[in-house]
Amino acid sequence: MNLRIREWDQFDYFDPVPVLQALRAVELGMVARPEDFSDVPDRVRRLRVNDLKGIREARDAAIFSHGMAAFLGTKVLYAPVESADFDFVTQCVVDETQCFVPVQLKEVPPAELAPKASLKSVLDGLGKYSDSDTALAIYLNRRERLDLNSVTIPTIPFRELWIFACASPDQSSWILAGDFRTDPRMIEFSYPDSW
Q1: If we measure between CA atoms, which residue out of 137, 130, 139, 20 comes closest to residue 88?
Q2: Which H or E element spans position 7?
Q3: In whole angstroms, what is the distance from residue 13 CA to residue 76 CA?
Q4: b/e 60-92 (16+ beta carbons within 10 angstroms → b)
Q5: Is the pTM of this model over 0.85?
């Protein structure tokens, strides 16, 4: 076992389903009792302040991991541990072999927060990274249709490229597309039902 895998094996891994269910319960509580949250700024509710960035990124990692579980047909756990070349590590068992994949997370933010941001600008900005065995997951966090045929992938220094996005206004349906380094395909998956 190489040193990186030994290190990754020591991380605390989380099942994304109960994490996402708990977060959805909080979201629904805020909707059900808006009077209790009327003084909470929109940026706080949307986890768009520096103090809540870690929670937002952990949620994004959980959604991606849940989507990968649907894609692979096996449970995918995640450890929200940030390092120089990754933001979290996924862990799953494939053909009786424990697999670890470090993942760098990027986002195309909502248009109202970054009107000039685009999938192309995120992809074009990857030149600063050196070659890595890390997978890249891009959260397309805006209302736009993802057409696999229209995505032009430049040479990137990551071993895999995945894109995930919400597919419904109520956030119950999501898509995951990838791996764009090989033969990309897209699946739709559901946000886990609340308890």
Answers
A1: 137
A2: helix 3-9
A3: 9
A4: bbbbbbbbbbebeeeebbbbbbeeeebbbbbbb
A5: yes
